Amino acid sequence: AADHGPSWTTGLPGVAAAAVHLPRHEDGLATRLSALGDGTDLSAGHGAFGALEALSMLAGRGDATAATALTRTSGRLLAAIEGQQHRCATPDQVPSPGMLTGLAGIGYGLLRLCSPDRVPSALLLEHFRPPTPATAPTC
Known about the structure:
Elements: H1 12-20, H2 29-36, H3 48-60, H4 64-82, H5 103-114
């Protein structure tokens, strides 16, 4: 029984990321992940952007519930940031520059929201894959 908190390393988002790679993932996972985006911590390692990454993986594999939750959770996160509520996973949610617990992870999460095909997942240790000539944008 895994911790159902928002932590990427010990909570539901990390478990969901692993489960997606199994032949069949647990029903209801997307619904539980979307609820984690309601907290005040937006960090990648312990907060809402970690949950968003897991939702993105599920949606990319055809989970319609995850796709809906991804849209809704993304909107909530953008509204929180616009309202200057970009809280970190540090004591007293003090702004810090960290990738997993701080502003760097929040900023990187925003880049992933903007362009998920061009910005690889730092949480999954993905690397950049240049677009093929057929799919490359023309300027």
